[in-house]
Amino acid sequence: MVQRVTLRKRQPYNTTSNRRRIVKTPGGKLVYHHIKKLATSPKCGDCGIALPGIPALRPRQYATISKRQKTVRRAYGGSRCGDCVKSRIVRAFLVEEAKIVKRVIKSQSKPAKK
Question: Which PANTHER family match (predicted)?
Answer without folding.
Answer: 60S RIBOSOMAL PROTEIN L34
